[in-house]
Amino acid sequence: MTHPLFAKHEDTLQKALAAIETRGYWSPFVEMPSPKVYGETANADGEAVFKAHLNKIFELDQPSTGETVGAEVSPFGFPLGVRYPKADPDALIAAAAEAQRDWRGAGPQAWVGVCLEILARVNRSSFEIGYSVMHTTGQAFMMAFQAGGPHAQDRALEAVVYAWDQLRSIPADAHWEKPQGKNPLLSMHKRYTVVPRGTGLVLGCCTFPTWNGYPGLFADLATGNTVIVKPHPGAILPLALTVRIARDVLREAGFDPNVVTLLATEPNDGALVQDLAVRPEIKLIDFTGSTQNGTWLERHAHQAQVYTEKAGVNQIVIDSVDDIKAVARNIAFSLALYSGQMCTAPQNIYVPRGGIRAADGTLSFDEVAQAIAGAVQKLVADPARAVDLLGAIQNDGVIRRIEEADQLGRVLVESQALEHPTFAGARVRTPLLLQLDAAHDHASFTKEWFGPISFVIATDSTAQSLDLAGAIAAEHGALTLSVYSTDEAVLEAAHEASIRGSVALSINLTGGVFVNQSAAFSDFHGTGANPAANAALTDAAFVANRFRVVQSRVHVEPKAAPAVAG
Amino acid sequence: MTHPLFAKHEDTLQKALAAIETRGYWSPFVEMPSPKVYGETANADGEAVFKAHLNKIFELDQPSTGETVGAEVSPFGFPLGVRYPKADPDALIAAAAEAQRDWRGAGPQAWVGVCLEILARVNRSSFEIGYSVMHTTGQAFMMAFQAGGPHAQDRALEAVVYAWDQLRSIPADAHWEKPQGKNPLLSMHKRYTVVPRGTGLVLGCCTFPTWNGYPGLFADLATGNTVIVKPHPGAILPLALTVRIARDVLREAGFDPNVVTLLATEPNDGALVQDLAVRPEIKLIDFTGSTQNGTWLERHAHQAQVYTEKAGVNQIVIDSVDDIKAVARNIAFSLALYSGQMCTAPQNIYVPRGGIRAADGTLSFDEVAQAIAGAVQKLVADPARAVDLLGAIQNDGVIRRIEEADQLGRVLVESQALEHPTFAGARVRTPLLLQLDAAHDHASFTKEWFGPISFVIATDSTAQSLDLAGAIAAEHGALTLSVYSTDEAVLEAAHEASIRGSVALSINLTGGVFVNQSAAFSDFHGTGANPAANAALTDAAFVANRFRVVQSRVHVEPKAAPAVAG
After folding, report:
1. Please, are residues A272 and A89 in contact by the beta-carbon 8 Å criterion?
2. What confidence score (pLDDT) does residue B157 get?
């Protein structure tokens, strides 16, 4: 009775179950783009396949109006020219309802087995997806491969295994037998049917289309829902490739492929999304994007469970250090990585204006600020190497934001345009680092400045720094908080601030781990308890409301006592 | 390190964990008001303690304005005269925030241990609480004792054990060690702190103040939240007694008793509740009551997780029977029990107008309707016995509804006022049974007529009956669906209708189980997937969003490889 795809991947599932129990390091998908793992020609093949998509119509045999849409432009300086079949949202909703019938009845093992097979095939397409992530988001290739490929696949599997962990805890049936004193037992057979909520809507973002899109997509599928994937108009291809693979697997497994469909759109699709998001058939929405759009969904899509990841203000508190160079190097890397276009990238760096303790004495505020500034400048000094870290700026809105931020305070490091050695038209900017003061710049640093924009902020004391960090996370949202201190009492106070702000804390990162990084199966991404996100990736709460249980009960002969003569 | 109250009750907790895994019969709290279990004088003592509350000020040492409130009237015909300390909602919110500090830090074992101790003591007060439920809700004593006492305690424990099941799956810490090829391992210690959401608000109802109030209250407490309990103004005493016990246990365990407070109010407290429900400190709301109020909360209390149980239309489909008398007897009991004032009581009974198959031939529509009508009349023929089943009508709104419903169709059984042999002023009414037709009475039977009001509805066929049942449950909500058929194909179709309507199905109930009954640890009460309720009692989804996890991470020496020289 075990579904063949479930049986095929059961070993992976068991390992994943063990991983979420201990939350130590585990990753089934290899993050290095190694020829030994992915094949000797995988990189070249993947790039060729990616290039073959350019300036063509993307084949997808789903309900379509017959027209095409698509206006993606690579942040590295050229239009992709990919045209996708245009779909009428009504037709996709109807197709999802039709596909739901058999899919719903297939049950948890089939849902999970299909998900695991999709992921295995997505993994094999990691290079193709990696190049498509690179040329939609602006991530440099290595990051696009890792974050858009195996790391996103890890996060997807994490959602699947959390779903399975909840699904398996619901018995398929039960024998209920209640003593009645001297009277015969009351005896019933009960049957529990897991019922998906209906159709899910996954709203992708333009910076991490797969990493942020997969958890909702796979959590929905693993709990038996149908899904309409609506990518950001600027980053359609990575999700289109994923949807096509999912549809192939569904079809081969005997299901209607319209369990998963793609809703590709032109830019400025806000009205279309709002109309779709409040449709009664849409029961689940996963969104990553602006606070404005996320809050709109939370407040208007009452018919749906809405999971949002929105803006936040990530912060670093510097109290005392052993080695300021190692601290500055680690921070600078975090600021430069993908030009700060990560939802986990730090923005506010608090330093007491009286300076800090270091291993060999004290450092003034200016010395700390200059150490960070110097580390940033060093990282981007060689454009050819810098672009592999910075990638490109996803859209012109970020460029405008850099220009606007430039006026906010004293400039520690100016943002500069760099020439990309390979892509002449690439939109590359180095990080902007400003000096602000907690005493009078509150309005500036309590909002998110998405992009390569960060502030070294002078505070009265570490106590004020931590107070700001906790309060700003609680009020404005945050996904990360980082602290540097050699003082146990300060670290304990930082822990309290992280609880107050309900934000994940990283302590004294000076080596190969950066605050921006969040590892599936170990790090919870977001807490769901501050305005940056209303859910965490991934925990039980992220999956438990994506299905319901419908029971039936009927009298049967008792088991515990002699059967009543019948 | 195990909390003493956790250790004290761990055996119960382990049994409860086993129960939710199998969902067979289990109940730790004895439902019979037996002197052997509860003590020889428990009944008399409990009644005396209840009576001692009448016409007095209820002692509760919590923040108060110094004034008193309370206007409860027994449906059995006398004012209770209990006055409760009046509380300013602001003061309760402030007290909860203050109490939160130590309570949050105590952690899952303390939260769960305290909950289990509260329940053990509440159980010992079952008679006192039973009489207080009786004289606020109008339930006859046996039901008030069982549903208001041990059954409510079972539901509370169920919420606690589901919470514990989720809490225990989060490791307190983890060692994360990531290979780096030829480079040294990356090695981190991670700490996961369970963080409650904040303050919960439990909004009680006037018919099942404890049964419907406890799950939210105990789910909140077991996940470390503080709770403000706001009973229905008509049924304060049962929850006031519960809150007082909870506060005693908290105080004895060394916690600030303001972890749980009571907000007693005068009737017509809607504006007060609405103001409180949207306060930023209120992060969880559990509500049982009208669709209007529940929907208001869902649409306005955006800052909170809102769990609602609202109105619904419960239905019975009669297709074919072995023994019409047994069917009619079972249905009549369900209609009469607590005068239909149960959220699970059936309202619409569908019978094909061409009649049904029975063991010994066919029965016409009228014969089926008359069998049910006759069974109802027989049940209430002897007023002295009838009142033990009917109890009293909770409020005048129900009386007015009976009068209004009387005009809807042909009367099969008229509702009558009965004299209560013990309580002269008791508001007792027998069930009203009307005949309607699916062809032209749709507007009448697609809304809830809360109270002893039900309809035998002529349909074209069982297929139409099931179609109505599924569609009405899906659109208007339902907690129960019951089917009578000797045909396996019809039972399968009924199962499909129950899935479509996302409503629990009972099949061929003719014995000692009634559709109104929902047993903790086995029956899910509500599915959370139709408009009657947005959550089920109890499953993982009911508890998983009541807490969040905040993590921290710091580099440590690797375990798996030789330590790097430091």
Report:
1. yes
2. 98
Structure token digits, residue A551: 């029971």
- Number of A–B residue contacts, CB under 8 Å: 189
Locate the chain B residue with the closest alpha carbon to A507.
B554
Which residue, among A166, A175, A188, A322, would best test binding to B if mutated, counting the most B CBs under 10 Å from its CB? A188
Residues across chain A: 566
Query: Which chain B residue has the Cα nearest residue A24?
Result: B176
Residue B177 is predicted with a pLDDT of 96
Cβ-count burial of B543 within 10 angstroms (0-12 exposed, 13-18 middle, 19+ buried)? Answer: buried
**Domains in chain B, please, with CATH?**
38-310+533-549 (3.40.605.10), 315-507 (3.40.309.10)
List chain B residues with CB under 8 Å of A548: 502, 527-529, 536, 541
Write the burial class of residue B17 (CB in 10 Å: 0-12 exposed, 13-18 middle, 19+ buried): middle
Average pLDDT, chain B: 97
Query: Is A560 strand, coil or helix?
Result: coil
pLDDT lower than 50: segments of chain B:
562-566
Task: Name the nearest CA neighbour of B457 among B476, B474, B442.
Answer: B442
Tell which residue, B271, B183, B190, has the closest CA to residue B230.
Answer: B271
Given this model, what pLDDT does residue B561 score?
53
- Phi, psi (rounded to 5 degrees) for B341: -90, 30
The burial of B344, by beta-carbon neighbours within 10 Å (0-12 exposed, 13-18 middle, 19 or more buried), is given as buried
The tens digit of pLDDT for each residue in A340-369 reads: 999 999 999 999 999 999 998 999 999 999
| Smallest Cα distance from B124 to chain A, Å | 22
The model's pLDDT over B387-419, given as tens digits with 9 standing for 90+, comes to 999 999 999 999 999 999 999 999 999 999 999
Predicted ipTM? 0.96
Could you tell me which of A172, A199, A198, A173 has the C-alpha nearest to residue A188?
A: A173
Question: What region, left, alpha or beta, does residue B147 occupy, with left being phi > 0 and alpha being psi -120 to 50 degrees?
Answer: alpha
Q: Write out the E strands in A43-158.
A: 68-69, 73-74, 78-79, 84-85
